[in-house]
Design a protein that fits this description.
It contains 35 helices and 23 strands. The chain is of the alpha+beta class.
Length: 921
């Protein structure tokens, strides 16, 4: 029951891509939920594990509180115990479609997404096999928390679920479905999932069937909503900075009077029969790369065999230590391999697979894949080294997930769906005790021929079936479990501009600029960001491929370490990330910095690793040649080329990139490294829990002394006018299309108009959530796009600034979406924005920046940017003040000055036959 790698990474860096923002107020030490002196009427206290406490309301609603004052943010996450498993015939995708409609409003909150944007909230929802969840993350204060809880309560029983919203949102969800249809791996996974089960709903993809999405009746959705959205089928999680007593009072007030429907929750009785033979299938569609996948049904995540099954999966599928990697990638049969177990409340499944270069034998890979999965652990049982590696990786993932209350509060939905949130801790502790023998036995029991899905039925008189026994309940699993009682602590850090300056030690060692911000973090985590500078436009000319591949080869071998040695050391040191940016812990930071320095200085560029990387990059580039989004992006970049081919600022076409990559040899990387590499010029920022003096000493003794031998001069882009065009790219039979528009203009971030342009873009298409003019028109009103928005790129050096619009649409909506986007932009320029829009945009932008500045990866990355420009946080403070003082007239003036519809180049990539046919109707 190990947390997945994707969930752990998401919890580790949640919010790292949001914008920088304003200050957080000082806070007191974290308050344990279990310390609440008195409870509101009707509320009872349940179990406590490591600082997290459960409460229960009289109506059956479970409440999980995880107070943590280390960041000035809080998250409210509502998990409903309903997913695609509960959908009936003709209703596939209903749980997911309902997820979309909940954000359309309720009785007392008719337009919640607008208020989310106004408050700078981050919001989202997700649907999976056994659950649906909705969360909002925000700057921690009583007003924001009260709003989030009140909206969550109103959404539970008073959501509109209206026909008009279904009519527009249906096409949005269909657009999301079509996005998956463009991805070979997504299509393969959905088909594999459907072949796994004859009767159980785990065989139905959460996104649903296209015809069900298009034709579902509003009455069915309303019935589904009223049946499952109820207190006794929900778990409310609040994590981050909040007062426990006040929060419980709010929850009791908002949720305590909600009544459950008179009807009991539906009983389930479908049990999938034991699989009785291999299944084989093929999918034939256009594409540029090949994939093969093999799946097996496995027990529930609550079953005693599940930890062994998951461990066997990791031993087989890990990169680069896994047995599949050794058998398929290192031998050149495949370019990459993967594998993961889908742990669910009822019997789930495991998937293994490989990517194969177009034109090479897929049959050979399929045969070797099956042979390795089904015989490897029998011929050579799991070794102690393999087992310890899996355990070490799992331990780091659990620790990193628990160290971030915001991401953890949302990720806990996966365990709630299994029956109890405490299963996170139970699973963590169980992973420490799993044995190699259990992994071997699980593989032997479940990874067998007649339980296999790869495609084609084969008759067999002697079947080898895998019997899956019943799993215990969550209560039985937890009956003898003794969790840890202690909770981790962290500093209540003030992320204001002034405090970031005051708490950071700035050091210059020659040309190396260093920022050290030491503070106590939950889990003693620390984030490192590095950016080293070398070369000039002349010396780097024609060496873009070598530059890119050299950086990618740093973790693939040094004069003393193999790729596997490096990977093992990174696991041992609890490092997540790469040489230029990673997260580790206080204890491991010195050794991690020493290892990363060795990667930069002592990389040996092994020939076999070079060949693997080159092949992987070729396959990746080839796979882009039929993807609308990649073709559109490449076309827009090509159109705005103002530098000659070979210049590092030149954007190559996919064909040019392939040509340059094919010409590149291992010796080119060695020469590039020898000529250019060094760590004595650039920026290093470290934020988190660490000994600043010890780190400074290490950087001075190692990084500051490794000097590049190449001459250095700054490289930046200068604005040059480019004539606007309309570029159309045909991608036959692709179920999704992309629009990208762009205009360039002269500006950098010191321009007094820059703050006003940021606010203008926020209103036009840059705001968070589903409330800006472009998304409101293309998605909310017309249902043309799943995702649409805009951005402004304003550099700190040079003056090539850009306004960019992007939208993902169905091919039949391509021309309509283009016309609507142009109309929205033109009307904004012509009529301007209102005072209300500007006021709310300023508020939302500043609060969004505020939330982002509490994230260590963003603070570290921003310090690097600031040091490169000889700045500190005073510049950001002045920018925030400038935004605060903007007038509507200034915002409209900036919009009209820089965003000129007639200067915008539009690229439309999609199936033009479908687009033109829709236009004729």
């Amino acid at each position: 029951m190990k947390i997945t790698k994707k969930l752990a990474l998401a919890a580790c860096v949640a919010g790292a891509l949001t914008m920088m923002n304003v200050q957080a107020q000082p806070t007191q030490a974290p308050q344990s939920a279990a310390q609440s002196a008195s409870l509101p009427a009707g509320v009872t206290q349940g179990p406590t594990v490591e600082g997290i406490t459960e409460y229960r309301l009289a109506n059956g609603l479970r409440v999980v509180l995880f107070p943590d004052d280390s960041k000035a943010t809080a998250t409210v996450n509502m998990t409903y115990l309903v997913g695609s498993r509960q959908e009936n015939y003709g209703e596939t995708g209903m749980a997911h479609l309902l997820e979309h409609l909940i954000f359309k409003g309720s009785k007392n909150y008719p337009d919640p997404t607008k208020e989310f944007t106004n408050r700078g909230f981050r919001m989202n929802g997700s649907t999976w096999l056994d659950r649906t969840n909705y969360f909002v993350s925000f700057t921690a204060n009583e007003d924001n928390l009260a709003f989030a809880l009140a909206w969550s309560a109103d959404a539970m029983r008073n959501s509109f679920i209206a026909k008009k919203d279904l009519d527009s949102e249906m096409s949005v969800v269909r657009n999301e479905y079509e996005m998956g249809e463009n991805s070979p791996s997504s299509v393969l996974f959905k088909r594999l999932q459907s072949m796994m089960y004859d009767w159980h709903n785990y065989g139905k993809s959460t996104i649903g069937n296209r015809s069900d999405i298009e034709h579902v009746r509003i009455e069915n959705l309303q019935n589904f909503y009223h049946r499952y959205y109820r207190p006794d089928n929900a778990v409310l999680t609040v994590s981050g900075k909040f007062d426990v007593t006040k929060t419980l009072a709010m929850i009791a007030k908002d949720f305590g009077n909600i009544e459950n429907p008179k009807e009991a929750l539906p009983e389930e009785w479908t049990v999938e029969p034991t699989a009785d033979g291999e299944r084989v299938f093929e999918i034939r569609r256009r594409g540029e790369s090949q994939l093969v996948a093999v799946g097996y049904r496995i027990p529930s995540a609550l079953h005693q065999d599940f930890p062994g099954t998951e461990t066997a999966t990791d031993v087989l599928a890990d990169t680069p230590s896994g047995r599949l990697y050794e058998a398929l990638v290192k031998t050149g049969l495949a370019t990459s391999v993967f594998g993961y177990a889908i742990g669910a409340k009822q019997p789930g499944f495991v998937v293994f697979g490989a990517t194969v270069k177009k034109g090479e034998s897929l049959e050979k890979v399929k045969d070797k894949l099956i042979e390795t999965i089904e015989t490897s652990l029998t011929k050579a049982p799991v070794t102690e080294k393999e087992l310890n590696r899996v355990k070490a990786q799992a331990e780091t993932q659990f620790e990193r997930a628990f160290s971030d209350p915001e991401g953890f509060g949302v990720g806990l939905s996966e365990y709630i769906a299994l029956g109890d949130w405490r299963l996170f801790f139970y699973g963590r502790d169980q992973m420490k005790n799993v044995t190699g023998k259990e992994a071997d036995e699980a593989a032997k029991k479940y990874f067998v021929r007649d339980n296999r899905v790869v495609g084609m039925f084969i008759p067999d008189d002697e079947p080898k079936r895998a019997e899956i026994t019943a799993a215990p309940s969550a209560e039985e699993v937890l009956a003898t479990y003794k969790p840890k009682a202690e909770a981790q602590s962290a500093e209540a850090f003030d992320s204001s501009f002034d405090n970031l300056n005051a708490r950071t030690t700035r050091i210059d060692v020659g040309n190396l600029k260093i920022a050290l911000l030491s503070k106590k973090n939950r889990g003693e985590t620390v984030t490192v960001m590095m950016n080293f500078r070398y070369g000039d436009a002349k010396s780097l000319f024609g060496r873009s491929a070598a530059k890119q591949m050299t950086a990618s080869m740093l973790t693939r071998g040094t004069d003393k370490l193999t790729r596997q040695d490096i990977d093992d050391k990174l696991t041992e040191l609890k490092v997540q990330g790469g040489p230029s940016g990673f997260v580790t812990t206080r204890e491991n930071l010195p050794k991690a910095l020493e290892l990363v320095f060795s990667l930069y200085k002592d990389s040996s560029f092994p020939e076999d690793e070079f060949k693997q990387l080159k092949k992987q990059m070729i396959v990746m580039l080839e796979s882009m040649r039929d993807k609308p989004v990649m073709l559109a992006k490449n076309a827009i970049d090509q159109h705005f080329n103002t530098y000659p081919k070979g210049d590092v600022r030149y954007e190559p076409s996919i064909a040019e990139a392939l040509e340059e990559l094919n010409k590149t040899e291992d010796k080119d990387l060695k020469n590039f490294h020898s000529q250019f590499y060094g760590t004595a010029r650039g920026e290093i920022s470290i934020v988190g829990d660490f000994d600043a003096k010890a780190v400074e000493k290490l950087i001075r003794e190692d990084y500051a002394k490794y000097v590049s031998s190449a001459p250095y001069a700054e490289i930046y882009k200068e604005y040059k006018p480019v004539k606007a065009e309309r570029i159309v790219i045909d991608t036959p039979e692709k179920e999704n299309a992309t629009i990208i528009a762009r205009s360039d203009f002269s500006m950098n971030d010191t321009n007094p108009d820059a703050p006003a342009l940021q606010v203008a873009n926020w209103i036009l298409g840059g705001g968070t959530g589903l409330s800006n003019r472009l998304i409101d028109r293309l998605r909310q009103k017309e249902g043309l796009s799943y995702g649409a928005g805009s951005g402004v790129k304003i550099p700190g050096k040079g003056d090539q600034a850009s306004f960019i619009f992007r939208a993902i649409v169905a091919p039949q909506n391509l021309l309509k979406a283009e016309a609507s986007a142009k109309d929205v932009i033109a009307k904004a320029v012509k009529d301007g924005f209102t005072d209300d829009e500007v006021r709310e945009a300023k508020k939302g932008l500043l609060q969004s920046m505020d939330v982002a500045r509490s994230q260590d990866p963003i603070v570290a990355s921003s310090w690097n940017d600031k040091m490169s420009l000889n700045r500190d946080w005073s510049f950001s403070k002045a920018r925030a003040e400038a935004i605060k003082n903007l007038t509507t007239e200034q915002v409209n003036a900036a919009l009209r000055k820089y965003i000129k519809p007639e200067d915008m180049t539009f690229v439309l990539a999609g199936d033009q036959k479908k687009a033109q046919a829709a236009q004729k109707k």
